[in-house]
Amino acid sequence: MFRTEIEPQESPVKISYKSKILTLGSCFSDSIGQRLTDAKFNTEVNPFGTIFNPLSIFELMELSLERSEILDAAILKRDGYYLNYKFHSSFRAKTKDTLHKRMEEALSKVGQLIREADFIFITLGTAWIYEQMKTHMLVANCHKTPQKEFNKKLLAAEEIVPAFFNLKEIINQHNRKVQFVFTVSPVRHTKDTLKLNSVSKAVLRSACHYMEDMASDVRYFPAYEMMMDDLRDYRFYEKDLIHPNEQAIDYIWDQFVQTYLGNEDKELLEKWKKLSQALNHKAFNPKSGGHQKFLRNTLDQLKDLNGHISLDKEIEQIKTQLK
Questions:
Q1: Chain centroid to CA 42: how far?
Q2: Which of 23, 50, 62, 233 has the maximal Cβ count within 10 Å?
Q3: Residue 190 pLDDT exceeds 80
Q4: Residue predicted with more confidence, 6 or 1
Q5: Are residues 198 and 293 in the same domain?
Q6: Mean pLDDT (the chain, rounded)
C-alpha cells in the first residue's frame, strides 16, 4: 500500500433530500456546494462569494441577522466601481445605492436561509487577516488597495472559537435545529509562503477541533486531511499546484456522501446519477422511434423519482422533446 487512506466515519446526523443546506466560506465550499446542487439537494452555495478568513465569514453571518452601519463605513471606490471591504469583489456597482441594494439583498437572503437551514457548511481558508490601519477595521477583501494600508495578522484559535460561539448563540435564537459542519480548505495559500500557510492551516484545524469538542451540533469533515494525507500527490492538483483537481474533489465528495447520507438517500442519489446521464444523452436522430421510446422511459423514471427529489424542470425538458 502506498496510501494512508482515511476511512469515512458515518455522521450521527444525516443530510436528506428534505434538508435545507447553506455553504459559506472559501472556494472549497463552492466545490462541495456545487456537488450538492448537482445531486439535487436543496442547497444555497456561497451567496457572499469567496470569503477566506473565519472572522469575516462570522461577521457577515451575524450582519445577515443583525444589521449594522459598518457596511457603509467599508465602502470604497476603485476603477469607477463601488466595492465594500466586507464583501467579495463580485459585489460591485457603478453607484453606492446599487451596491448597497445588492449587499442588502444578499444579507436578507442569507438571514432567511440561516433561519431555515438544517445544515450550514463553513469552509475556513486562512487564519491570516487584514485590518485597515486607519480604522482598525477587519476586511474580507483588500480590493487591490495597497498593502501598506493594512496590518496583516495571524489569528489564534483562541480568537476564532469564541467568535464562532458568539455567532452560534445569535443563530440559535432564530434556529435551534441547525447543524454546523466545518471544513478546512485544502487549497494552499502559497502567497503566504508554504511555511506560513502551514501555520495558518494549523490554527484553523485547532479551532475546528475545539469547536467540535465543545458543542454536540458542531462537526468537522476532514477534507483537508484527505488532500494532505491521503491524496498526497501532485496528480491530484490543478496545473497551478494549489487547487485540488476534479479527480480529488470527486474523491472527497464520495467520502462526504458516505459520511452524511443515509442508505435511502444514497439510493436516491444513485438513481438520479443514472437519470442525469440519460438526460445528457445526445441523440443522433431525436425523432426516431428508438429515441422517443428512450425519452418516454426516462420520463417515467423521472416521475417516479419526483416524489423524493425535485425534478419538475427535467420532466418539462423531456416533455418538450416528445412528439
A1: 13
A2: 23
A3: yes
A4: 6
A5: no
A6: 93
CB atoms within 10 A of CB 131: 14
Q: What whole-number distance in Å separates Cα of residue 67 and Cα of residue 61?
A: 10
Specify burial of residue 244 (Cβ count, 10 A radius: 0-12, 13-18, 19+). buried
Same domain, 92 and 120: yes
Distance between alpha carbon 63 and the CA centroid of its chain, in Å?
18
Task: Summarize the confidence of residues 27-39 as an average pLDDT.
Answer: 93
Lookup: cell for 252: 472527497
**Are residues 117 and 156 located together in one domain of the fold?**
yes
DSSP line for 190-235: GGG-HHHHHHHHHHHHHHHHHHHHH-TTEEE--HHHIIIIIS-SGG
> Of 65-69, 217-221, 232-236, 248-252, which range is least confident?
65-69
Average pLDDT over residues 240-257: 93
Q: Note whether 281 and 169 are same-domain residues.
A: no
**Rounded to 5 degrees, what angle do the CA atoms 126, 26, 176 make?**
100
Q: What is the pLDDT of residue 81?
A: 96
Show which of 240, 261, 282 is a domain's final residue: 261
Number of domains within the chain: 2
Residue 2: predicted pLDDT: 66
**Helix (DSSP H) and strand (DSSP E) numbers for the chain:** 11, 10
What pLDDT was estimated at residue 307?
86
Full domain range(s) for residue 85: 20-261
Question: Within 10 Å of residue 3's Cβ, how many Cβ atoms?
Answer: 10
122 & 240 share domain: yes
| CATH code of 210's domain | 3.40.50
Q: Are 247 and 20 in contact (CB under 8 A)?
A: no
Is the pLDDT score of 6 beyond 90? no
Give the three cell numbers for residue 217: 451540533
